[in-house]
Design a protein that fits this description.
single chain, 69% helix, 434 Repressor (Amino-terminal Domain), mainly alpha
């Protein structure tokens, strides 16, 4: 079909956009089908090619869904592609140069709406963190991470889109770090945590979530000084959100494991003061720190200080928080029960210890994370003390602990999560 002289500016822009990319009209049709995906139905291929010929010739102005698809393929806004008129004061070549430069600036392999949908998916995954077993959650988080990295590596985005994708991926990698730690894969967790920091730096975003994940992993690796320092750095760079409360609590926990109870108590106090000045979130994400979770950290510090009375007071505070409407999380509840059980063992009250831990022994295996089973490892070590030999309650408790921890959560595809 011959091109009309004096065809509409939008027809020339479609034709120029195709030619700049070295595409034939059939290749442009293939690109339109890719842009349509499964959400937009197009007629048969040859019909789409005929539409392109008509559009480029200016015979008919594109109708839905073609304007949207052309904009996706060329990376241009609809107002630029279809509504902009050449200024009469400028020559056609000058206008074409400006249009070509605008098209180059706006070329992207991802639209803003797609970036927003990816971020919304990341947000919903975080909101489901405590409701979903770690193995299927890890699979979903890694799937989204791979989609993001494919976009980052697969083509050109606008600078702000690239930064946004790196920010999203930093959170996904931090979430992955936590899940891998829950599944006892600390080596892989370390790698993902470090990469989360790099992604946050590349985005120019806060590293707080990545540092929180690192602090958690370093604690389980028994690198307590590194854990406390990572949490402190995260606290210093975190905005005023529940994550900042969590980071102070994490510093307290790691400091207590180092035996630095002055630092631990100061960090706990900082967590409480920070909590008074930040808005509450859902209380169920990896970065949440509602009153019940803060009480758990206080319980942990008290146990390290060998202060069973303070530990039981913290357990009561957690129970009171749940009674007053704080979000109930099974993992936090189990840790509080086992922590209270340890406190009673310290006091020699085995009946009370059994009363605390028995309800939590029914926690489903897929939720028996490292953060939970480690409490029982500690309790078992205390029950093995000579003073408890010959106790039927101790025998029963140790059997329950062995059965509980032997059915712990483990990834079905260990070593394939990177």
């Amino acid at each position: 079909m011959m091109e009309k002289s004096g065809s509409p500016a939008w027809a020339e822009r479609i034709r120029d956009g195709r030619r700049q990319r070295g595409w034939s009209q059939k290749q442009l049709a293939s690109q339109l089908f890719k842009a349509a995906g499964e959400e937009i139905a197009l007629p048969e291929f040859e019909s789409v090619v005929r539409r392109i010929k008509d559009h480029e010739a200016g015979n008919s102005r594109p109708k839905d869904p073609y304007p949207l698809l052309y904009c996706r393929v060329f990376g241009m806004d609809e107002a630029v592609l279809f509504d902009a008129d050449d200024s009469p004061a400028a020559s056609p070549s000058m206008s074409r140069d400006a249009i070509e430069h605008a098209a180059w600036i706006e070329q992207s392999n991802v639209g803003d709406s797609t970036v927003a949908m990816i971020d919304e998916t990341r947000y919903h995954l975080a909101e489901r963190h405590t409701l979903t077993p770690p193995e299927p959650m890890l699979a979903e988080v890694l799937r989204l991470h791979r989609q993001v990295t494919a976009l980052l590596r697969g083509g050109k985005q606008r600078l702000r889109q690239t930064r946004e994708l790196f920010r999203i991926d930093a959170d996904l990698l931090a979430h992955t770090c936590i899940l891998l730690g829950d599944l006892y894969d600390d080596e892989s967790a370390v790698v993902h945590g470090r990469t989360a920091v790099l992604s946050a730096q590349e985005a120019g975003a806060s590293e707080a979530a990545a540092l929180s994940a690192q602090a958690r992993t370093e604690r389980w690796r028994r690198r307590y000084a590194a854990s406390a320092d990572a949490a402190r750095r995260g606290y210093q760079c975190s905005p005023a959100t529940p994550l900042r409360v969590l980071l102070a609590s994490q510093e307290a926990n790691a400091a207590s494991l180092l035996g630095d109870f002055t630092r631990a108590r100061e960090a706990l106090q900082r967590a409480e003061e920070t909590a008074e000045s930040v808005a509450d979130d859902s209380g169920v994400t990896p970065w949440s720190c509602p009153p019940s979770r803060r009480a758990l950290y206080a319980l942990s510090v008290a146990l390290q200080a060998r202060d069973p009375v303070a530990a039981l007071q913290a357990a009561t505070a957690a129970d009171d928080a749940w009674a007053n409407g704080a979000p109930w999380v099974a993992g936090t509840w189990a840790q509080v029960r086992f922590g209270a059980g340890i406190a009673y063992v310290m006091m020699g009250d085995l009946d009370a210890a059994a009363e605390q831990v028995t309800p939590a022994m029914s926690l489903p295996p897929e939720h028996r994370l490292s953060t939970i089973t480690n409490y029982l490892v500690r309790m078992d070590a205390q029950l093995a003390a000579p003073r408890f030999r010959g106790s039927d309650i101790v025998t029963t408790l140790r059997e329950q602990i062995s059965m509980f921890n032997s059915a712990r959560a483990l990834p079905a595809t260990a070593g394939e999560n990177g």
